[in-house]
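User: Sequence in, structure out. Go.
Assistant: Echoing your sequence, followed by the structure tokens.
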Amino acid sequence: MAEPAPLIPTEASTLGDLKAHGYKPISLKDELRRNLIAKIHGREPVFPGILGFDESVIPEIQNAILARHDFILLGLRGQAKSRLIRMLPNLMDEYIPVVRGTELNDDPFAPVSRKAREMVAEMKDETPIDWLHRSRRFGEKLATPDTTIADLIGDIDPIKAATRKLTYADEEVIHFGIIPRTNRGIFAVNELPDLRPRIQVGLLNVLEEQDIQIRGFAVRIPLDILLVFTANPEDYTNRGNIITPLKDRIDSQIITHYPRTIEIGIEITKQEAWEEREGPVSISIPSYFREIIEQVAFEARESDYVDQKSGVSVRLTRSALEDLISAAERRALAHGEDRTCVRISDLQFVEPAITGKVELVYEGEQEGAQNVARVLVGQAVKKTFERYFPSLEKRGAERSRYTEILSWFASGNNLELLSDLSFADFDSRLRAVPGLASLAVEFIDCGSPDEAPSAMEFVLEALHQNSLLGKDRLEGRASYTDLMGSMLSSIDPEDEDYS
């Protein structure tokens, strides 16, 4: 088993000091491999905070690093691709020595730039060094159509040539791009297909030969670098493509994915959403609300209204949960309450978090983004309800548990709920429905008294979503009624076809 590199005192300030300490240089990919082996052997988390990839994506990234591969993360938006690559620097040594004052992070034992080579040749063991932290060994570029070879690789700098009175034959007139400036580090290109094909060609040598060539210079500068890329499969047709020779030179293609279970999705949303807020209001979020929010994303990823090629980002659930909490917080503040619980009626305020994060197909556009969002929320409520309460789809003992509630509405009663009701008013209106409170608390573990009315409203909304109760929704209010009465009330008696 390979051991981690010995700790090198950062007090060393010259090449001679490094030699005296027995420092042995190592290539970047070997450095990453060595440190990954140490983490795996020590059972340390390699990508802390990345959930749902333990059996799929993370092992494949580890395999690529162990194989010293450049790789690409391929997946739809919101699948933690950028976060994963930004965690790769944690696998590098904390500090490495570089020749002082050079542009390419030159290794004192194997300098590549002209300036560093001349310094080492002239000063030998007295060559001054600096210690470069791993945070400065990571470069990242969002690929855009206007990105140039000069940005990535470099070009001749006429201003430098003029001010320093250099000829264009002098290597010193080169202005290096961001890739060579990340020498001995990791460079990431996000959204690779957005690079124009002729710019992608410029990366071929970096991947295959580990060097760069600039303009007409015969100089070849060997680079010690790991290249990683991200791409969205949809981009292949919508905005561009990865040229075949470049795909061939990327050693590993790793496919990312969305959370595969509701439970993992909930954990991710908990981790990402802003829940712990300063203020006078304490807000409780029953577990079934977390399930509803997560189920919305699952429903969207299967909906015929949503363009599945574009994906549904996990950012949707984070934003939706934050909007849900904010709706409860705002209501409690308005009534001077110091604690509250989120409600089913608060779900109407998560629609802005949905409409901007799903791409609709033609049928969805015809339906309208807001209506699609309401459908997704309704389906999520229905699916989540099934995990807690007796089935509403079967006649018999289970269905009979709802008879008392449905009979009250069938007798001509209705229940109007406003989105901004105080807790006392909200609670009293719901308790007016016979059998509702007892049913709700039987199947929902209410951790505090203010959670019980939310559970009752959950039952009513599920009855509506299962077409057992009608619901008239107006701005800021909802009225639950008997389904038949709701249907009849929607008919205009003055319509000439009405009889």
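User: And one key feature?
Assistant: Residues 15-255 form a domain with the Rossmann fold fold (CATH 3.40.50.300).
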